[in-house]
Amino acid sequence: MPLGDASQNYSDASDTALRLKVDLHIHSDASHDGRSSVESILERASEIGLDAIAITDHDSISESLRAHEIASEYGIVSIPGVEISTSDGHLLALGIDDLPEIGMPIDETVEKVRDLGGLAVVPHPFQRTRHGAGKVDDCDAIEVYNSRLLTGRSNRKAKKYAEKKGFTQVGGSDAHTVSMVGRTYTEIITTIDSKVETSEKVLESLRQEISTTSVHGRRTPIHLSARQIAKGGGKKAAKSIKSAMFGLL
Ligand SMILES: [Zn+2]
Ligand SMILES: [Zn+2]
């Protein structure tokens, strides 16, 4: 399903702002709970009209680096990145070539990511069962909508927190299957340039104070979240998801 008319904005001379559609949180089969090859992800992302993506596997950067190399063949930008397990919870590192040390405190990891020239984004901060990091004092952006949700409460809390602290707001599909790519995406509205063709420029557009973001999110169907969590997190997680599902029905 196409996302909309992003490409039209490139040629619209009356509108100097550029609108980029990006999904900055996608897992490939290099994640223990991911199922899709980077090729299928890139193909899908390009097909639905995303301008850029980031493959962010758990504590593994190899497939993301490979996606970055081959993305131009698909007419899309792929930002190299990773979802790091810090001792406080998950952290997305975008725009880095090296894997930061795993298991360090989140504030140190944020600094390390910046030293490596990257952007540190806190994903699903208030989803504690999914290793959300909670209230983080310093980062470059907060994920205010993550598609893998049950009630949406954690996302609302994240948005409130980002607003209060003045953090840049982004969203991510957290896709573990190719059909979920772009389920949530961030629209970056920027005046950076007439063309944003590299991952550096996409990240620069996110960093710019004059840029704004708009997050468009839809939830992952619960049967998919439950299946993925059951595979990745074991029986206990599956049980809690199941009871939450029954609570919702
Ligand atoms: Zn996570
Ligand atoms: Zn994730």
Structure overview:
This protein has helices at 6-10, 38-47, 62-70, 106-115, 153-165, 199-207, 222-248, and strands spanning 18-26, 52-55, 77-85, 90-94, 119-122, 141-146, 168-172, 184-190, 212-217. Residues 4-14 and 238-249 have low confidence and may be disordered. It is 33% helix and 22% strand. The radius of gyration is 17 Å and the shape is globular. With 249 residues, it is an alpha/beta fold. Strand 1, helix 2 and strand 2 form a beta-alpha-beta unit. A 9-stranded mixed β-sheet has the order 7-6-5-4-3-2-1-8-9. It contains 7 helices and 9 strands. The chain has one domain: Metal-dependent hydrolases (TIM Barrel), CATH 3.20.20. The chain binds zinc ion (2 copies).
Concise synopsis of the structure shown:
With 249 residues, the chain is α/β, with parallel strands linked by helices.
Report helical residue fraction.
25-40%
The count of strands amounts to 9
Q: What's the CATH superfamily, by name?
A: Metal-dependent hydrolases
General form = globular
Bound molecules: zinc ion
- Average pLDDT reading: 86
Q: Helical region count? A: 7
Our count of domains comes out at 1
The CATH topology:
TIM Barrel
Distance between the termini: 28 Å
CATH class: Alpha Beta
- Indicate the proportion of strand residues: 15-25%
Radius of gyration, in angstroms, nearest whole number: 17 Å
